[in-house]
Write a structure and sequence with these properties.
about 475 residues; alpha+beta; Immunoglobulin-like; Jelly Rolls; 2 domains; DUF1254_sf; DUF1214_C_sf
């Protein structure tokens, strides 16, 4: 049975349980605290991740680059001007098909204006997620979005909409994250052509709106030292601080239907550990154990997802997880900020067709039969990541192949073979070579932006990864 087929049925007289929760005057045991704290940590991991990013951005004075990663004041974005580089550690599983922007939303402070230039025929999509990592805007090529100004507001905002605003999107939470993506092909000509468009990709507080299209030279913004250099994604969730942040997170994200009892239970837990330091210590120890034994393994794609032919996997509720807590946390740990399925469909692979772990000590091929590359209205790519879900540096500086590459060689029968290996193939195959890390595990990842029906309904899935 799949999670999509499981629906909760309300119990008769369900309102009897609400809004009452645990009696905070009652003594609780160490074992109970550990039980509830561990589950609370798993449930709250994605929300804490987004909330902590807001805390990290709140003191940024202006849009800038923190090392290789964009950083901006709250309710603004900062834009890159080319593909993300291998040393970026703000978000794992980046791609080199788009130029990214990033910024945290704090809609309790002010609504934010989202500026959309005229992208013409170029693919683009603006992702904005709430505290739960669920998407709440529809802005992109697939929506037929027109150039102009769009307003994003918090759940309780009741102000006047200024003249000149095309549409308004209301977030279910005040805290969120914005990540524009604009397609760029892998040519010098397109790197130059995209710059005027990037310079008009902006988000800013409502009080700065004057009805005119603003421009910022993103190539001219300040660069300050970042936190690049580590192997793994920058950490945003820590057992030691999780329970201190949890009250604010519960206040920011109202319970989904059916979560009222969960919220009451969590507030009872908070009260118990606040009153007794030994129980707080037990809660932190339980959260630490969950981090190490339950959440950390979810970095590896083979440990979750809908299982597809040839050991590929996928999910179908990205950016709309609802009460599917397992998949929400798994996605947040392995590749946070996934687009909605109609915007991007993702396919994940850690294994070859025989079920062995992908490793750069071996050579592989991925062959798309004639007319069997991912069916998309936008673009597709096959990306290679190291075991930490970041790019594996190589001399070609090539980390993905797909629509953006204009020199891929198609065989006489119309098929397209991509060679995945550490050592260079023969010269006639170099254009189709996706370099792998030598003697190290890696992951393959198919993106299909603006997918066609065959991708969405499951009738198309990726071909096998075959060892040669």
């Amino acid at each position: 049975m799949t999670t999509s087929s499981i629906a909760a049925t309300l119990s008769p007289g369900w309102t009897r349980a609400l809004p009452a929760g645990p009696d905070t005057k009652v003594k609780v045991t160490d074992a109970w605290v550990r039980l509830i704290a561990g589950e609370a940590y798993f449930w709250g991991w994605p929300l804490t991740n987004i909330y902590t990013r807001r805390l990290n951005f709140q003191d940024v004075p202006e849009p800038m680059l923190a090392g290789p990663a964009p950083a901006a004041p709250l309710n603004q974005v900062s834009m890159l001007t080319d593909y993300v580089t291998p040393d970026q550690r703000l978000v794992c599983c980046p791609n080199q098909d788009v130029v990214y922007g990033a910024g945290s939303l704090a809609l309790d402070l002010t609504p934010a204006v989202v500026q959309v230039p005229d992208f013409g025929d170029r693919f683009w999509v603006y992702q904005m997620v709430d505290l739960r990592t669920d998407g709440f805007v529809q802005l992109g090529k697939m929506y037929g979005t027109t150039p102009g100004f769009y307003l994003v507001v918090g759940p309780d905002w009741a102000g006047e909409i200024p003249k000149g605003i095309t549409d308004v999107f209301r977030s279910p939470t005040n805290t969120g994250f914005a990540a524009p993506r604009i397609f760029q092909d892998d040519t010098a000509e397109d790197r130059a052509a995209i710059q005027p468009l990037l310079n008009q990709v902006m988000v800013y507080p409502l009080n700065q709106f004057d009805g005119t299209m603003k421009t910022r030279d993103w190539k001219g913004i300040k660069t300050v030292p970042g936190e690049e250099g580590g192997a793994s994604e920058k950490r945003f969730v820590f057992p030691e601080t999780f329970f201190d942040l949890l009250p604010s997170i519960l206040d920011d994200a109202p319970p989904l239907p059916g979560e009222e009892a969960r919220y009451a239970l969590l507030r009872g837990l908070i009260a118990a550990i606040k009153a007794d330091p030994t129980l707080k210590k037990a809660a932190v120890e339980a959260a630490t154990a969950v981090e190490e034994t339950v959440i950390l393994p979810l970095l590896q794609f083979r440990n979750y997802g809908q299982q597809l032919p040839h050991n590929w996997s996928t999910i179908s509720n990205e950016a709309a997880f609802g009460t599917d807590y397992f998949t929400r946390t798994a996605a947040a740990r392995s590749n946070i900020l996934v687009n909605a399925p109609n915007e991007t469909k993702y396919f994940y692979q850690d294994l070859d067709v025989s079920g062995d772990r992908l490793n750069g000590a071996k050579r592989y091929t991925v062959t798309f039969a004639k007319d069997e590359t991912p069916p998309v209205n936008g673009f597709w790519s096959l990306t290679l990541y190291n075991e930490h879900h970041f790019f594996a540096p190589n001399d070609l500086k090539r980390y993905s192949l797909g629509t953006k590459n204009k020199d891929l060689i198609v065989a006489s029968d119309g098929s397209l073979t991509i060679y995945v290996q550490a050592d260079p193939p023969s010269d006639d195959k170099r254009s189709n070579w996706l370099p792998a890390p030598k003697d190290a595990d890696f992951t393959l990842y198919v993106r299909s932006y603006w997918p066609k029906a065959a991708v969405l309904d499951g009738s198309w899935t990726p071909p096998p990864v075959e060892r040669t």
